[in-house]
Specification:
mainly beta; Porin; 2 helices; 49% strand
């Protein structure tokens, strides 16, 4: 009997921590960060750095309910070279939204608000580059369709452009277990203002998960992409005579934490 008692007691002591751990609920809060280096910062087909490299990074908070908020930043060149700011050349994005799935359909959604902020010294008479947009996206398997609409009167340096919109159709396909992901994109930017600045843009990309090579490289992704637009050169050329909408091949590497 004593031997059986000792056995039951020891078994109970061993099980108690396991039960306690099982009883702990997973935290609904999660945080993530990212940093990247790119040979050319391309946004909606337009070079934001005049063909020069950029260092980028961001932080995000997510809740199990689907709510998220975050910030992201990069150096840019067009604020001075295209827009005419006395100083600046920095982009800071602030965003918040809600994402999740629609039943068992396999369809996902993402709706939110984003503010593109360009701090710097703006001369009198120069249109503000800061832009606020709302967005909504639907995803299914390898496809994502996203619509963005400007709420601010100024849209990336164009005045009286409230209501300008951008539609984005993207495709992302992992290639088996190789760690490679093939991507494709088409977009259309229409400005609700005077001038021939509307354009289409497209992209082809290939990314590689370097964690496939070594656990030390977990979270590291490298890639290459080709981008082009039909943007009019006369409208999208900066003070350095750089056509910001021309075709470009860009290399990048990023790390997610």
């Amino acid at each position: 009997m004593k031997s059986m008692y000792r056995t039951l007691l020891l078994t109970g002591l061993v099980c108690v921590p396991s039960l306690a751990m099982a009883a702990e609920e997973e935290s609904p809060h999660s945080f993530s960060a990212n940093v990247s280096l790119t040979s050319n910062y391309i946004f909606r087909g337009i070079s934001q750095t005049g063909g020069d490299p950029a260092v980028q990074g961001g932080f995000d908070y997510s809740h199990s309910s689907g709510f998220y908020v975050g910030t992201w930043g990069s150096n840019v060149g067009w604020i001075e070279d295209f827009q005419g700011y006395d100083s600046g050349n920095l982009e800071i994005d602030l965003y918040a939204g809600l994402r999740g799935g629609i039943g068992d359909s396999g369809v996902t959604y993402d709706v939110g608000l984003i503010r593109y902020w360009y701090p710097g010294d703006k001369p009198a008479g120069v249109v503000d580059a800061d832009t606020t947009e709302i967005y909504a996206a639907l995803g299914w398997k390898w496809f994502t369709l996203k619509y963005s609409r400007a709420l601010s009167d100024e849209v990336f340096g164009f005045d009286n452009a409230k209501g300008s919109d951008y539609i984005d159709l993207s495709f992302s396909l992992p290639i088996g277990e190789t760690g490679l992901t093939l991507g494709a994109h088409w977009g259309r930017f229409e400005f609700d203002s005077n001038g021939p600045q509307d354009y289409d843009d497209w992209k082809l990309s290939l990314a590689y998960d370097m964690g496939k090579m070594s656990k030390v490289l977990t979270g590291v992704t490298a890639g290459v992409m080709y981008t082009d637009t039909d943007a009019k050169k006369a409208r999208w050329t900066d003070a350095n005579n750089e056509n910001l909408g021309k075709s470009a091949t860009t290399f990048w590497i990023s790390k997610a934490f």
